[in-house]
Amino acid sequence: MADWLNSYLSQLALLYLIFMCVSDSLCINVRYSIPEELEVGAFVGNIATDLGLDVKQLPGRRFRIATGGKKEYLDVNLSTGALVIKEKMDKEQLCEHGLSCALIFEAVIEKPLKLYRVEIEILDINDNAPVFKTSELNIEIPELLPAGTSFLLQRAIDPDAGTNSVRSYQLSSSEYFTLKTQPESEYNYVPELVLERPLDREQQPAHQLTLTAFDGGNPEKCGTTHIKITVLDVNDNAPSCEQNIYQITTAENTPPNTFIVKVTAIDMDEDLNGEIIYTFSDQTPNNVRDVFSLDSTTGEIRVAGILDFEEVENYQISVQAKDRGTRALSAYCKVLIKVTDVNDNCPEIMITTESHTIPEDAAEDTAVALFQVTDPDSDEKASSYCRITSEIPFRLNSYLNKYYTVVTNGELDREKSPEYNITIICTDTGSPPLAANKTIRIQVTDINDNAPRFTQPSFTMYVTENNVIGASVGAVSAFDPDFNQNAELSYSIFNNLVHGLPPITFVSINATTGEMFAQRSFDFEQLKNIEVHVQVKDLGSPPLSNNITVTIITVDQNDNAPVIVSPLPFKGPAAEDTMPRSAEPGYLVAKVTALDADSGVNAQMFYQLREPTDESLFTVASETGEIWTIRRLAQKDPFRHTIVIMVKDNGIPSLSSSVTINMSVHDDTNENASNIGSLGNVGPWKYDLKLYLMMIFGATSFLLLMAIVILAAKMHRRGIEMSSPCCCWQPSCISREDPLHGIQKASASIQISPNYAEVYERRTLQQTFDYDTCQGSHLNDFTFLQLQGVAASRIDMNKGTSHPEECGIAPNSMSKDTAKFLEIYGTRQQDLEQSAIERCSSGQYGIGLYTSEKNDVGPDPRRLVEIHSRAF
Question: Quick one: 726 and 865 in the same domain?
């Protein structure tokens, strides 16, 4: 407020000097005295009258109060000239604690300009009561402090001045304290609190007093403050435990940090003197410190380690309660903790004796292990029972409820189960029950109780003919479910003869691997397959064995060229044959028959026409070897043709053979000559040539002998002379075609001229030999000789096969046996031919009917037929 007032006054002085410079008017001072706190509108004085101004001229001359921008506390009524309160004034705010307070401002009037200094003195009134800085005063006094000790108190403040300010203090009654004041100045006093006797905090830790301040105004006003006296403690009391002995029961395995008990001690002191620290006493062992923890502030004992009934059942703990005073005092408490048992231990299985192996032929109740079961828990929880988990051939036998043996309970088979993991589970009777398990591994040792077994019921191996000696043929394999030497196998071959020879001459076997090797070069044409017996034996004791049959099949190779068996050269390198000049297109000239000793594809043959004299005249069926005419013979065609036929097989590489046929063309008069040599070897007469030749040789010899005997008997009975002439061989009596030649149904593969289609449609054309009965009925005998002795074949043109007649003689190709037969009996045949001609001329014999169809088979009996033909 003083700063504001000084600033305000300075501004007024400045304005005053300014106006003094610009005007010569005289300044007049006016002073008023008013009490503070006047209401707004209160009359101060008539400033117009006091300044000698005409009230009526105030508005015209613009009369006003100049405050210099400060707060306007006064105002002028221009109608009356009165100075009134515009805002309530508080002396304590304007002048604070000064004894005098004045408000100075200027009154300004214009036309002419004049300034008037106005001073307003503000008089103090007792409008404020004494006030303490705080409503409560806290004082700390230690106990046991001597009497007479004084404590300075705070003084009260009164904004009023002079007699209206604080004049005295008063203290509420107390047996421990009194009040004393000390003057500071004329109007200021400082109160003091005086201790009358020592304080005891334990009896009364605090005291409440009231201090009152009075001013000198009228009416008197006062102010109060509360004094709170706190008695400070002195460590004059030792702590004491609420209980000297704490007895606690807790279960073992209590989790860490679990609250057990709280030790409480009391100290009548306060602060550090009454603050207690809890610790384990020096007599507390380390195992207690490891299991329990103690909170030094709260005295709480908690689990810090593991409580185990089986190790410690009771704990005794000594706790020290000590205050924090300068001269610390302490007390001791005892805590007894009893640990109760819980079923926290599984049974323990201790193997005393154990056998890791057992033979598979072990007898029942054979012991393999002995073990003991213990339980650290109390007796009521320690009893247990044991069992084996899975269904295995073992069981447990109990002894004294703590010892068990593991024995076999059935047959063992190493091949099914080579080892057993015997899991033993033991469970106690606690709540909840606990269990332990132990696994015993037992290996079953092997005995030689299984014979070796082959992997297949039989083995078939293949070896290509002409193989290298020592080449692998294949391997047999066997297995033995036994173990070690009982499963080690050895292979061997039984010494049974194979085709009259020891098997070692054909194959050998590796005793270890079972691989078989060829000991010779196989020939498919000589040896198609062999069978050997292989034995496998283990190395057990005693050894066991098994055997099997191994079939070794020779695989054919194309190592044989086709062999031409018909027609065969009669004299010289080429075969001779004839055909009539009147042969029609499609006439079967001859047939080439070949054999191949190979098999399969290697034996499949086809025929080719290589060097015919005239390619337009002959063709050959690639499958059957039949040689046919393509066109009719012309007069300009030569009388002799050379035909070269090549026979090739389908092997890789292909092999071939060839035959040369010298074909002679004769006129129709010679057309009746038999051409049996053109018959091919097809059907069942294709094989077993030697057998067929021997049959023909025997049958022919027998028939010739019978014919001679019959003829001799006839001649002896009837005589040699015949009265009537015999029909001789007449061309009109026979067919125009040779019985083994002529128009046949050609094979589909033959290239035929277009005009051959008409002839080709004829299914069967019989070639007939007619015979006339000579005088007398005795010609039938030679007819029998002709039909039976010569063994003429009936050829089926539809099927392309020949069928032997009643005599059952199967024709076949010309062989060495046939040639030998012709050589031996050549002279006899010539005699027979001459005799037949003579008898024909005498009328005793005729010629039988001979029918030829499409095809013919067998060896070349053409010469025999020709011999008998000339007889007629």
Answer: yes
